[in-house]
Amino acid sequence: MSVLIKNGKIVNAESSVEADIFIDGETVTKIAPAIDTPADTVIDAKGKLVIPGGIDVHTHMELPFGGTMSSDDFATGTVAAAHGGTTTIVDFAVQEYGEALPVGVNRWREKAESKVAIDYSLHLIVRDFPQVREADMKELVNEGVTSFKLFMAYPGVFMVDDATIFRALRRSGDDGALICMHAENGGVIDELVKKALGDGLTAPVYHALTRPPEMEAEATGRAIALSEMAGVPIYIVHLSSSHALEKVREARSRGVPAYAETCPQYLFLSEDNYREPGFNGAKYVMSPPLRPKWHQDKLWKGLQDDDLQVVSTDHCPFCMKEGHKGLPIQKELGLDDFSAIPNGAPGVETRLMLLYDGGVRTGRISEQRWVQLVSTAPAKLMGLFPKKGLIAEGSDADIVIWDPNRETEISVKSMHMRCDYNPYEGRKVTGFPEKVLLRGKVVVDDGAFHGKEGSGEFVKRRAHSIKV
Ligand code: DUC
Ligand code: ZN
Ligand code: ZN
């Protein structure tokens, strides 16, 4: 099958050009000013932007967490991602305590295999890294799993100590892996949580007040210091605050290869959301939490200055009410105790439109920077480039035809994520993924899904090659 995309404006991170694209099978084979080769499908992209498919390197599909399971599985979550213009995700597999690292990855691949509707890869959350497991890291790098997440928060659930972090960092340098860090000081946060609950403070807003930005900054600084000592790069996930950004900025200004992502929720929502009436604040309970509004401008500045390189979602939905699509009780587990509210929110479908509307249309970032943040930089940092994250001859034909003028209203009613609320409900955004191609096949066309569950491929990622 062949596809010809005509008259569009191709926007890559490094350049923007009006040209036609010829796709033979799954690959872009030609880009030229005017292509007239006959094709099975011809798409007229006049007035549209033609961008590489979105790459979301931070999702949690069917994650067992907080006494329940995130509500999107690999089918519903990746269909929703496709609707939003994302054609590749990198999800987080979890190692059980005592388990060899490849076992966790294989469990996630089995979950994904028959369901995943877009291409995917996996990081592994490492909970337990004794010496006997160290060789496992190389084995996984050879299989294309080239990044590992460690937690400095959630004691007793995910948290690892500094010695473990340091050993994993050193090992990552030898093996060509990248360590992704959840940077919050879990020990101090636990103390603050106990004190708040002891004082009878149980409402959702206390989730934010017991996870202060100072404790995100402390952990971010510590993670960077440990990575410097180990002589390896580090990638800070879901950075939410000006305080933590300062640590990354300072390290980068010294030439340290510290990288960081932020997420739309930290750019568009704020601590005020926790004060919505009743139990509504639970919708925004995630970690790190939403911050006071003034942090938003600092994060935008970080994106402009390249102190933040990636915008991902940390998509981890839980329903507000029991029974939505047959799902069990989730957010309401914490009706009387904010610390029992499952942490996470939906976002995989809305990332590109929020960042286009709130970033490009407001003049905060250029179209090219937008593409870089949502596709090219994540592809490069996570070893997917130039197969993904770029429209070029030889790259996968993962392409979004973006209508820059179409206005939509974000609503749980029209979205596809398996969750009974949307954190941006009622927000009007301009810019819409009109057609989405996954390896040359149109999987979404004007809001209709034409892809297939199970047709997404596991993508082996390249070993990390950045040297300090
Ligand atoms: N933060 C969340 O909000 N959910 C999943 C895990 C995490 O780190
Ligand atoms: Zn995290
Ligand atoms: Zn996460």
From TrEMBL:
SUPFAM superfamilies reported for this sequence: Composite domain of metallo-dependent hydrolases, Metallo-dependent hydrolases
Domain of life: Bacteria
GO MF terms, alphabetically ordered: dihydropyrimidinase activity; metal ion binding
Alphabetical UniProt keywords: Hydrolase, Metal-binding
GO cellular component, one term: cytosol
InterPro entries, sorted: Amidohydro-rel (IPR006680), Hydantoinase/dihydroPyrase (IPR011778), Metal-dep_hydrolase_composite (IPR011059), Metal_Hydrolase (IPR032466), Metallo-dep_Hydrolases_sf (IPR050378)
All residue ranges annotated as the Amidohydrolase-related domain in the record: 49-443
Record-linked PANTHER family: COLLAPSIN RESPONSE MEDIATOR PROTEIN, HYDRANTOINASE/DIHYDROPYRIMIDINASE FAMILY MEMBER
NCBIfam families assigned: D-hydantoinase
Family: Belongs to the metallo-dependent hydrolases superfamily. Hydantoinase/dihydropyrimidinase family.
The name this protein goes by in its record: Dihydropyrimidinase
Annotated organism of origin: Eiseniibacteriota bacterium
